[in-house]
Amino acid sequence: MGRVAAEGVxxxxxxxxxxxxxxxxxxxxxxxxxxxxxxxxxxxxxxCSGARGRTYxxxxxxxxxxxxxxxxxxxxxxxxxxxxxxHVLQWQRWGLLLPLLYGIAELRAGxxxxxxxxxxAAGLRDGGYA
Length: 130
Prior knowledge:
Blueprint: H1 2-19, E1 23-32, E2 41-49, E3 60-63, E4 66-69, H2 78-94, H3 98-108, H4 117-122
Parallel strand pairs: 2-4
Antiparallel strand pairs: 1-2, 3-4
């Protein structure tokens, strides 16, 4: 169920990102693991870059299987895409519960992404937070 929800949310996010000026493409991100000790896998991420900023927060936001970001090339570097691919795996695991769980983690962290468990699991250095 989580994978289906992640794909549906991702397709909707891509449509909204395109309306916000983004161009979308599929990127295969190798060697991604959402849980330390689990085998790494290749994760397909729909990357929508060039959005004007109405459809993402911070440097970019992953909705389901889609990562939406602006025009800064740094936000589409390999390390950042590896970070966002972990968020895709989180969406696939938690489905529509993820926004609620992420929001609770964000409140507990006081808005500090370095203390948000979902950001930490995705890799603070890869995400540009460390």
